[in-house]
Design goal:
Pfam families: Suc_Fer-like. Keywords: Membrane, Transmembrane, Transmembrane helix. InterPro entries: Aim32/Apd1-like, Thioredoxin-like_sf. This protein is of the alpha+beta class. It folds into two domains: 287 residues, no CATH class; 61 residues. The strands form two sheets. A five-stranded mixed β-sheet has the order 2-1-3-4-5, covered by helices on one side. Helix 1 packs across helix 4. The longest helix is centred in the C-terminal third of the chain and has 39 residues. The protein is extended. About 24% of the residues have low confidence.
Length: 352
C-alpha cells in the first residue's frame, strides 16, 4: 500500500507547482485521451517509491514487457501492461476484464505465462488462478517519472482509503499505486475497474481528479457503475463506444467541446510502436492497431447493388422505361402515317 507519510515530505512549493491547484488543471479536454485496448495486466513489483523513471526496464517488468512485444502478433486482443506496488506480493499479475489473479510470476515463468494466458487464452499451467472480487482503483503515483503524479497520487490514495473506511468498503474496494499510465498533465490520474450499470466489468480512466472528487467517485462510479463525465478520459474496450460518449463532453467551465482530435487520429492512422512499449505512453506494451476503413468503403460501393437487389426493383424500373420508350416511338410512327394519308387524299380530291 502507498505510504501516507510521504505526503509530509512534499514541500509547499511543489504542492503549488505540481499539485491540484497548478495552472494547467482543467486546461484540456479529457474525453478521448485513452487509446483503444481490450485487456489490462497489472504486475506487482516493489514499492512505488523505489521505481526508477523507466520501471518497465527493471527486472521482471522488463522481461514481461519484452515478451509481450515479441509475441504481439500472436496475442489476439490489444493488451496493456502497467506496474503496481507489490511489497510482499511481488510477481502477482492481475488481469482485467477477466478479473483473474496469478500469484508469484518469476523470471523463468514469463514465456510460459504469455503463451498460456495471453496467446492461447488458457489458465497458466504453472500457476494458481484466483478469481478477483470487488472494485479496483489504480492511482498513478510514479513520482520519479513525473512530479505531478508524485504529488497528486499519494494524496488521492490517502483520501480514497479514508473514504473507503468510512463507508465500510475495505473488503470491497482495493486501492493501489501504479506506474505511469500516460497523460502526466492530467494528474491526478486513476483507473477504476468495477461493474457498470449493466453488470459488465469496465475500466474507466479519470483525470484532473482531486481529493474533493473522491466521495463522488465512490458513490457514483463504484456504487452505481455510472461515469462521471467531467473527469472521464476514456474506457477499456471502448474504441468505438467511447468515441460516441465523448462527442459532447464539457470542460468544467461549461464550454462544449468536440471529441478529441487525437482520438480520431488513432482510428484513421496506423499507430506507431512506442519506445515505452505502450500506446498510452505507459509501461509495457499494447498491440494497438487502427480499425480498417476498407469495410466501410466496400459497403458504400455495394449500396446501389443492394438496393437494386430488393424485390427486383431495378429490373422492373428498367422494363417500364423500355416499354414506355417503345410505345412512344410506335405512336409517333402512327401519327406520321395518318398525316401522310391525309395529305395524299387532299391532293387526290383537288386533282379530281
Amino acid at each position: 500500500m502507498a505510504d501516507p507519510s510521504n505526503l509530509s515530505a512534499v514541500s509547499s512549493e511543489d504542492v503549488a507547482k505540481f499539485g491540484f491547484t497548478r495552472d494547467e488543471m482543467y486546461s484540456s479536454n479529457l474525453a478521448g485521451t485513452v487509446n483503444p485496448y481490450d485487456r489490462h495486466l497489472f504486475l506487482r513489483h516493489k514499492s512505488y517509491n523505489d521505481w526508477a523513471s523507466r520501471v518497465e526496464e527493471d527486472g521482471l517488468p522488463n522481461l514481461l514487457s519484452s515478451a509481450l512485444k515479441s509475441r504481439k502478433n500472436d496475442i489476439p486482443v490489444k493488451t496493456l501492461l502497467t506496474v503496481i506496488e507489490g511489497a510482499e506480493s511481488d510477481g502477482d499479475v492481475l488481469v482485467f476484464p477477466e478479473m483473474i489473479k496469478y500469484k508469484g510470476l518469476a523470471d523463468s515463468d514469463v514465456d510460459g505465462f504469455v503463451e498460456d494466458v495471453l496467446v492461447n487464452g488458457k489458465p497458466w499451467a504453472s500457476g494458481v488462478q484466483e478469481t478477483l472480487t470487488g472494485s479496483y482503483i489504480f492511482v498513478c503515483a510514479h513520482g520519479n517519472r513525473d512530479k505531478r503524479c508524485g504529488v497528486c497520487g499519494p494524496a488521492l490514495i490517502q483520501k480514497l482509503n479514508v473514504e473507503i473506511e468510512l463507508r465500510g468498503l475495505k473488503d470491497q474496494v482495493f486501492v493501489s499505486a501504479c506506474s505511469h499510465i500516460g497523460g502526466h498533465k492530467y494528474a491526478g490520474n486513476l483507473i477504476i475497474f468495477n461493474l457498470d450499470s449493466e453488470g459488465k466489468i469496465t475500466g474507466n480512466w479519470y483525470g484532473y481528479v482531486t481529493p474533493e472528487d473522491v466521495p463522488e467517485l465512490l458513490d457514483q462510479q463504484i456504487a452505481k457503475g455510472e461515469i462521471i463525465q467531467r473527469l472521464w478520459r476514456g474506457q477499456m474496450g471502448a474504441s468505438t463506444e467511447g468515441g460516441d460518449k465523448t462527442d459532447e463532453q464539457k470542460l468544467p467551465n461549461g464550454t462544449e467541446v468536440k471529441e478529441n482530435e487525437k482520438h480520431e487520429e488513432t482510428t484513421t492512422q496506423k499507430t506507431k510502436e512506442n519506445v515505452d512499449g505502450c500506446c498510452q505512453g505507459a509501461n509495457g506494451f499494447t498491440c494497438c492497431m487502427t480499425a480498417s476503413l476498407e469495410a466501410n468503403e466496400k459497403e458504400k460501393s455495394e449500396e446501389p447493388r443492394e438496393v437494386c437487389g430488393k424485390i427486383g426493383m431495378c429490373k422492373l424500373t428498367s422494363w417500364v422505361e423500355s416499354w414506355e420508350q417503345h410505345h412512344v416511338l410506335t405512336a409517333a410512327a402512327v401519327v406520321g402515317v395518318v398525316a401522310t394519308v391525309a395529305v395524299a387524299y387532299s391532293y387526290y380530291r383537288r386533282s379530281g
